[in-house]
Amino acid sequence: MPKEKTSKHVKCDILFDDNSSGIFTAGDRVTGVIELHLTKIKKVRGVCLLISGYSAVLWEAKVPDGPKNKKVKAQFKGREDFIKQKQYLAGSENGAGMQLPPNLVRYKFDFSIPPSAPTSMEGKYGHVRYLLQVTLERPWKFDHNFQQPFTVVCRADLNQSNEVLCIPTRAENMMTFYCGLCRSRPLMVSATTPKSGYAPGETIELEVFVQNSSKVTVSVIEIRWQKILKFTSQTRVIGQTQIPKEESNVQYEVLEVRKIPSIEGENDARFVESFVVGPVPSTETTHSRIVAVEYELALVVKPQASTKRMKLNIPITIGQIPLAGSAMPYAMSGGLQKLNDTLNEHSSAPPAYEA
Questions:
Q1: Angle CA 24–341–278, to nearest 5
Q2: CA geometry: angle at 235 spanning 232 and 241, to 5°?
Q3: Helices (H), the chain
Q4: pLDDT more than 70, % of the chain
Q5: What is the C-alpha separation between 157 and 319, in angstroms, rounded?
Q6: How far apart are alpha carbons 213 and 265 in whole angstroms?
Q7: pLDDT the model gives residue 138
Q8: pLDDT value of position 349
Q9: Tens digit of pLDDT for each residue in 21-33?
Q10: pLDDT tens by residue, 170-224
Q11: Which of 136, 82, 68, 74 is nearest to 105 (CA)?
């Protein structure tokens, strides 16, 4: 593979037509212009534009291997392409070579984002990325590469979901305590939301009802509004051996935490907590086989002087188009820009690779 090198004699600008933010919706047609600024004649085989959109996962873990099941380091990875187009703006892959003049050279580009393309996403063990790359191919020397990422937002319409998102959602749990052979009366907790589908800018009203018939005090109830990123590998690599292997890795990203104070024994209590949905990507469970994005309200009930914990989970579906009758979604131009900024803040995502 030819090496890459920057050059002070070449500058490249990749510009989108009527879209300075670089944020697009799945299904959009994307047009623009590539401007090459050359200060001297440059010999190339061709000027190539690579349009790519893909999801990739990558992590390492120790697993048992061999006849003695000794733990060794394994790499789990996968890749899935949504857009993979290669266009020659000048020259060709098998061309003899050509000379680019020392001035401004412009090339137009035009492509469509598939309607099923998932929303851009960055996580600890994987990502969904979209990228334009211009390459000045010089197989006899160094290639010059110039990249321009762009953001894709899936047009997730909550009204078209197969799930019933407009009805109340409820989770409940119960626990008892022992003192010797005697069992206490129950501690019961329930949590309810008026619906389970929300768009950015809407408020989730969570009602928590505690019926504490025991004599044990509940020290705190912690509520986490969190994003769940699920990554699924396609292959496992140990040394030089690579085999098909589906393994999952989950990353929890806490968006907001609330704490309900103590509740004495033999007491009932009712609380309402409000969570505003910020500029987050939509729930994504269908458009990629290896990367999924989900959301939930997770409650942890902590009784006093006890190691026991009660857990309740309410799944929440996020879309860009709210349920009929809901407030206007946050994801207008400003909200989309904040989503793009949020995606670009992540710097710990694994590098792209060829599966």
A1: 90
A2: 155
A3: 333-345
A4: 90
A5: 6
A6: 7
A7: 87
A8: 43
A9: 999 999 999 999 9
A10: 999 999 988 777 888 999 999 999 999 999 999 999 999 999 999 999 999 999 9
A11: 136
Amino acid at 36: L
In 3-state terms, what secondary structure has residue 3?
coil
The burial of 243, by beta-carbon neighbours within 10 Å (0-12 exposed, 13-18 middle, 19 or more buried), is given as: exposed
* Rg of the chain on CA atoms, in Å: 26
- Highest mean predicted confidence (pLDDT) among 36-45, 143-152, 337-346: 143-152
- Say which residue the tokens 């907001």 belong to: 256
- Asked whether the beta carbons of 35 and 270 are under 8 A apart, the reply is no
Show the beta-strand stretches assigned E in 216-346: 218-232, 235-238, 241-244, 248-260, 267-276, 291-303, 310-318
* 275-298 per-residue burial string, b: 16 or more CB within 10 A, e: under 16: bebebbbbbbeebbebbbbbbbbb
What strands lie across the sheet with 291-303, from one edge to the other? Answer: 197-198, 310-318, 291-303, 218-232, 248-260
Point out which residues pair with 155 in neighbouring strands. Answer: none
Domains recognised in the chain with CATH numbers: 10-54+81-153 (2.60.40.640), 158-322 (2.60.40.640)
Phi, psi of 311 (to 5 degrees): -125, 140
Q: In whole angstroms, what is the distance from residue 233 CA to residue 121 CA? A: 17
What distance in Å separates the CA atoms of residue 162 and residue 168, rounded to the nearest whole number?
Answer: 16
Nearest residue to 244 via CA among 232, 234, 252, 259: 234
Closest CA to 144 of 36, 7, 274: 7
Backbone angles phi, psi at 85, to 5 degrees: -125, 140
Identify the CA nearest to 7 among candidates 51, 41, 34: 41
